[in-house]
Design brief:
seven-stranded parallel sheet, 15 helices
Length: 322
């Protein structure tokens, strides 16, 4: 690595000023080659992530990652050294599950995984959906699609087929869309990929018809205020952020950290932004979190347990989702 201590590494990988999504993603090239293919590191990082989030007061966490990246598979632009991978993606999922299971036991938090397809790596997607199916009762609750939003669905039929299989298998679906890309990408995610949730989704409000449809169908938007500014997806003036519109229109959304290492953030960072610049009240946070729990990818029984836990903590009577 081009640095010699922890402070140097933090300065290298942390994004603290608005830039671009491309610049943010370039940070991965520094530390991923150290982690990828390392069984002990993968399991330990999963364990420590559970610890960190439990310390933030989170009771239920859904974590997304690419098993192929962590397996050390060959892909541009990350400079992997081996083409076949040091681990199989299946081994990666098993290792992550082991770390999360240990973290759940030790820290009293519930953790589940969402496995990522990568837009420019169609060849991985069939294996991703099969891994989601294999581990659906063992820690994995959904499938995601991340990467270059400028590639439309016609450019990646392999992903479309993977999502068709996900629908067939009953696997929950979310898609990165409307962060760096236009509203069209969100519409494709909803209409072609049958997404139940949208990662980021800020561009949605640029298309009134689409935005109305999203609200009517109660499709959940996974918003990340700090990330959206640092990647250049949204204006740096948080008072004009799409989340303000989501809240005003009572859309189904949540606040999330995106990548906590690169953005040097916790969930409190994004909550404080919402409180300071978006006029979120205590009731707004509670309502949002109940909507997030309703839109979680847990099975019905576990979702009901989570909601009851929140109702009790908030001193609220039970109500149907939304």
């Amino acid at each position: 690595m081009p640095v010699e201590d922890e402070d140097g590494l933090r300065n290298l990988v942390i994004c603290s000023k608005p830039s671009s999504l491309t610049e943010v993603l370039s940070k991965f090239r520094y530390y991923m080659p150290v982690i990828a293919g390392d069984r002990e590191a993968i399991q330990q990082i999963a364990y420590e992530l559970a610890e960190d989030k439990a310390n933030e007061g989170i009771v239920y966490l859904e974590v997304r990652y690419s098993p192929h990246y962590l397996a050390n598979c060959n892909v541009h632009p990350i400079p992997w050294e081996q083409s076949e991978g040091d681990l199989s993606p299946d081994e990666v999922v098993n290792l992550v599950n082991q770390g999360f299971q240990k973290g759940q036991r030790d820290f009293g938090i519930k953790v589940r995984s969402i496995l990522c397809c990568i837009r420019h790596m169609e060849a991985w997607s069939p294996e991703i959906v099969e891994l989601c199916k294999k581990y659906r009762n063992d820690g994995v609750v959904g499938i995601d699609l991340a990467g270059d939003e400028l590639m439309d669905c016609e450019s990646y039929p392999g992903h479309v087929q993977a999502y068709e299989m996900a629908v067939k298998y009953g696997i929950h679906r979310t898609v990165h869309a409307g962060e760096a890309g236009p509203p069209k990408v969100v519409r494709e995610a909803v209409e072609i990929l049958k997404a139940e949730r949208i990662g980021h989704g800020y561009a949605t409000i640029q298309d009134p018809v689409l935005y109305k449809e999203i609200r009517q169908k109660q499709i959940h938007i996974e918003a990340c205020p700090l990330s959206s500014v640092l990647t250049g997806a949204c204006d740096s003036d948080y008072t004009k952020h799409p989340v303000v519109t989501f809240k005003k229109d009572k859309a189904n959304f949540s606040l999330n950290t995106d990548d906590p290492l690169i953005f040097n953030s916790t969930i409190h960072t994004d909550y404080n932004i919402a409180a300071k610049y978006m006029n979120f009240t205590e009731l707004d946070f509670m309502t949002m979190n109940l909507n997030a729990a309703c839109s979680s990818f847990l099975c019905a029984e576990e979702k009901e347990e989570l909601l009851n836990q929140l109702y009790t903590a908030y001193g609220m009577k039970q109500n149907p989702c939304y």
